[in-house]
Structures are given as C-alpha cells and as structure tokens.
Amino acid sequence: MARRRSGDATMPARRANTTILALHGFTGGGTDFAPFAKLCGGNWHCPNLPGHGPEPHIDCTPEATLRSVETERSTLNAQSSTPNILLGYSMGARAALLHAVQNPDKWDALILISPTPGIEDAEARKERRAVDEKLARRIEEHGVDAFIEFWQNTPMIRSQKRIRKDWRDTMHAGRKQHTATGLATSLRQFGQGQCPNLWSELPKLTMPVLLISGTEDRKYTAIAERMASILPNCTLQEIKASGHMPHLEAPAASAHTITHFLDITRDPRSSV
C-alpha cells in the first residue's frame, strides 16, 4: 500500500480515452461531478442513484442499488472498450464497493472518495438506523429545501462551503430538485445502518484501488487508513485543506491524484 499526502497541484493532462462511472453522495446528483470531470478529462458517466433526482427510483435497497449500478456498467460496456473505472463518493462509494465485491472481475480499477465499507457492530448499526429514521422523518415533515439547509450545516458537510461559489450554487440548485419521498427512502433503505458490512470482503478487491480522503475529515481518513491496510493493491491519498468532499473542496489536488493513479494503472513503469 502506498500513501501520499497532497497539497496544491497543477491541472493534469486530459485522458480522452478513459471511461469512468461516477456515483454521487447522499443529497447529491450526477451533475455534481461535471466541473471536476473537466479537470480530470476522460469520458465520465454520472447517473443519479436511486432516491435522487426529480423523478427518482423509489426502491433504494442495496439490491436495487446494485442493479442500478450494473445497468449503468452494462450500458457503458456496450458503448466503449476503454478501461472500466468505477468511482464513488461517500454514499456512492458504498454503492461502488457493494458492486465491486460482488463483481470483482468487472472493474479494472476503483476510486473511492470518503468511503466506508460499513458498520461492523450490530448495536451501532441499529443506532444508525434510528438516526437515519429521524432524518427521514425530518425530510418528510419539513420538506427538501429546509432539510438541505440543515444538512449543509452539519459538522461533516459544512466544509463544503469552501467550494467555489458557482459550483456550490449549481449543486444547491440540483439538490432542490430532489423529492422528500426519494431522499427519505434513500436514508431508510440505503443508509449506513442498512448497507451490508463489507469489511471482510475487501481482500476480494485485487484490482488497483485509490482511496481519497480529506485531512480535515478525521473520521473518514481513519476509515480509509484501515481500508488501505486490508486492500491488496491500494493507494491512499489524503488531500490537505479539505473535508468530506475533497474532490470539490480541493479540486486541483484531487484531479491530479486521480489522473496520476490512472496513469500508473495503465503503465506501472510510470514514475510515482
């Protein structure tokens, strides 16, 4: 396992022939990746996950999420012969891990931003389900706009206020298009208390894996460090001056990290 820390970085060269399936976080959407994808280059396919968007799929169970990712993967496979790269952020990283551990031969590489393989302790899982149920009721009772305002000010999420204003405004407009039913169902069916515990499955992931965390997000950096000690072929990158959403809080450094990882994945002889 290689570990590097990154500060500022110049924009990497574009990789027009690389195809990436990118999965967003809770309350986000596929369009969140648009400005970051331009920095990285390549062909990004960024769908909305179940429960998200103005007309969401309401079945958000792990099984339905797995089918959703597989449908997107199959579509990309039919259109392109370029490497199959799966990227996930936060909730999207959980979805990416879920698909990858069940289909380890279908991906050439994984990029996981602020990931977690799940909650191991049964009592802690129960407590998390109760927390997510309270959040789901809050959405239903107060509406999407009020919930998004509350959510953006929670300790883990509020570091996103450092995202450049035009990107943040576009993200916020997209979040207002979600439905209360969709977001509440996502929490109830694909919140961390409902997602499978995948810690024991990590050794199956023998493809190159890049883990990215923000140094200010101590909880998820600690999780990433533990994951890196288990994954057979892993690089861990901790992005300075960023929290839970490092790819938009520190986009140049994160884009450089991803592009470099893809270069090494394609050509291991490249310099580190």
Task: Walk me through this protein's architecture.
There is one protein chain. With 272 residues, the chain is α/β, with parallel strands linked by helices. It has a single domain, classed as Rossmann fold. 44% of the residues lie in helices and 13% in strands. It contains ten helices and seven strands. It has a seven-stranded parallel beta sheet with strand order 1-7-6-5-4-2-3, with helices on both faces. 45% of the residues are buried. The model is unreliable at 1-14 and 268-272 (pLDDT under 50).
Spatial extent as radius of gyration: 17 Å
Main β sheet profile: 7 strands, parallel
- Category by helix and strand content: alpha/beta
Query: N-to-C SSE series?
Result: EEHEHEHEHHHHEHEHH
CATH topology: Rossmann fold
Quaternary class? single chain
Question: What's the helix count?
Answer: 10
Distance from first to last alpha carbon = 13 Å
Spatial ordering of strands, largest sheet: 1-7-6-5-4-2-3
Number of strand elements = 7
What is the overall silhouette? globular
**How helical, in percent, are the residues?**
40-55%
Total count of domains: 1
